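Severity: low
Component: inverse-folding endpoint
Summary: output formatting inconsistent between runs
Steps to reproduce: submit the following structure tokens with default settings.
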């Protein structure tokens, strides 16, 4: 075989090998891109999909009616910050960056698909704000969203704080529906122990 034909054959073989190698690399890169997109989609879905409280392991959590704002705010919408041990929870429900909250302790209601807490509520009412519930009043919705229902309220203690009279109200019946709430990566609101003191006299 003439030298020129042999050289040409080697060149064509090298070009074929390069095309084959390029195809393999393209396939690998495409597969990696698809995998990365799938993992990103999975993480985004987990961060934004509503979660059920019954399926959570023991620990501290924050659920909010709106997805994580990803900014300086501790939460969006109205939130439930709580600790869970077995089927029992202890926490508070309220609006981030405000003094509007109700302490909640109770159990996960299995009959509500693990998305409702039933138990007791503990609230504070200041003199400059009218009481929303009295011992004689019936069941009512505490929040405008209608997730928390309270009843059987009793004023059991009065304390002075910053020269204002604060009336503590124990609601013997509380029901919190957290259906559709979003689970945040970790609690960012004030710890429950700093706001909810159930050891009243």
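Observed output (run 2 of 3):
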């Amino acid at each position: 075989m003439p030298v020129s034909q042999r050289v040409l054959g080697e060149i064509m073989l090298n070009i074929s090998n390069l095309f084959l190698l390029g195809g393999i690399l393209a396939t690998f890169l495409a597969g990696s891109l698809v995998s990365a997109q799938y993992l990103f989609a999975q993480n985004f879905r987990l961060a934004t999909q509503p979660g059920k409280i019954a399926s959570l392991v023991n620990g501290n959590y924050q659920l909010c009616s709106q997805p994580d704002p990803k900014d300086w705010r501790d939460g969006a919408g109205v939130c439930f910050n709580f600790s869970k041990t077995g089927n029992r929870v202890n926490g508070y429900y309220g609006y981030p960056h405000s003094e509007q909250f109700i302490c909640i302790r109770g159990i996960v209601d299995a009959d509500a698909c693990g998305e409702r807490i039933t138990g007791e509520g503990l609230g504070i009412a200041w003199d400059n704000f009218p009481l929303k519930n009295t011992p004689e009043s019936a069941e009512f919705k505490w929040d405008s969203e209608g997730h928390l229902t309270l009843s059987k309220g009793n004023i059991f203690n009065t304390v002075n704080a910053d020269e204002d009279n604060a009336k503590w109200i124990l609601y013997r019946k509380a029901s919190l529906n957290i259906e559709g709430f979003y689970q945040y990566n970790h609690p960012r609101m004030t710890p429950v122990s700093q706001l909810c003191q159930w050891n009243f006299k």
